[in-house]
Amino acid sequence: MRNATAALIVIDLQNDFCPGGALAVPGGDAIVAGINARMNDFGAVILTQDWHPADHLSFASQHRGRAPMELTQMPYGPQVLWPDHCVQGTPGADFHPALNTSRADLILRKGFRRQIDSYSAFFENDRATPTGLRGYLTTRGITDLTLVGLALDFCVHYSAVDAAQLGFAVTVQQDLCRAIDLDGSLAAAHAGLRQAGVVLA
Ligand code: VGL
Ligand code: ZN
Fold it and tell me: Which of 29, 110, 117, 177 is catalytic?
């Protein structure tokens, strides 16, 4: 049975986050079949897509002398410098080919402003610019969210915490997520999710 007030939100299941991609998350492709199988349990399925211009300021390549995975300061705070990834219109930004995209009601793109990264599907990294997803969900009467996808310690983490703070009932299904685990980011994500009241299933 599909639950009309529950949505499955699949975070950034894109080629660049899968083995062989520019910012590969170990085992990122191993969760695709399980995610497809869960889609029928939800009244709504939403896919997010990391969608950067080629000169995005989260890319280390845009900062002279800086290397990927280093930290920099942006006007909105600290920001990890990433390898170029999920550039708009490139194969790396496409969804994993086995992901069932036809079941999606909405594909939400984020990270398209050069100056601001966006881990969360709700607010960009300045923590102020909304993506519009809240309005979509609330106007559809959706109250319960299950999040899966990549990466558990970045985009899934930030999306789940924001969703809980906005008042949604949020579950992160951990076996359908994979993590980057950069400098303790996975432990920080677990703590942050618990503190926000997210159910870790
Ligand atoms: C992500 C780093 C940079 C993610 C996106 O989807 O977790 N991580 N851009
Ligand atoms: Zn990104």
Answer: 110
